[in-house]
Amino acid sequence: MIRVYEVTPRDGLQNEAVVVPTEAKVALVNRLVAAGYTDIEVTSFVRPSWIPQLADGPDVLRQLPRAPEGVRYWALIPNRRGLERALDTGVEHIATFMSASETHNRKNLNRTRRESLSNLEAVIGEAVAEGLTVRAYLSTVFGCPYEGTVDPAATVELAATLRSMGATEIALGDTTGMGNPAQVQRIVAMMTEAGIPVSELALHMHDTRGTALANYLAGYQAGIRVFDGSTAGVGGCPYAPGAAGNAASEDLIHMFEAMGITTNVDLDAAAETGVYLARVLGRELAGRYHRYHLGAASRKADKAARAARKAATA
Ligand code: MG
Fold first, then answer.
1. In terms of CB atoms within 10 Å, which end of the chain has fewer, N or C?
2. Distance from C-alpha of 260 to C-alpha of 123, rounded to nearest angstrom
């Protein structure tokens, strides 16, 4: 049994050119819940001027029905101000973020890693005091677009620090899709040696170079059971048309289910959510299973049309 942490409403939509209406976001989350996902990152509380696509975060949370038993809605939180706004909506599960590499952290967050840690100490401390669950993302764990190689020992230290602050899930992010399975094995081993239980680790891989599923399999073999995915692979790389972004939820559900490892997500319902999402976004999406699903549907329609023509001429 594995858990798929679905990031589409946040990580997927924040990279889209169009701003998806609040009702469509709520409908998307409802579809994800109906498909069987139990962990859904529904929005972020990053300053609206930075990410206008998610400016309606409070509305999304307020309009969502109460999460059914066993389902957790997560919100991405950058700082204390964001946490205050999120608390007003009654959020119970938050995700924080910083980078494993210094340069990416500075370019992305305008802070040193040390400054990020002191910001997160305040955010996580308050969140834990409020009884919230905290996931902490570490970006660029498997490579940095500015620095190249990232020191895994520094990543382990950051993970341990975030854990000591109260984060109970550390999501190791492959921001630019540079990771490989050997790296995944190595970093998980180093985390375990440092006393960080594998049950508190999650992987957030990008399929930029086609390695996301291989990395997830390596992660599974190393004991990880939480894998991030987005519907039809949206997000991750907004400016290259057709480029793969996040690992696609349907792809990883298909792979694990085919191996006999259950996800509790209905693959057909997940795939239909991809069809819905492509319609909402008005563009073709890159996910491999998504494309297979569309192909299978159109072959079925062709076959039905041929049969109808044959019956008409008979
Ligand atoms: Mg991502």
1. C
2. 39
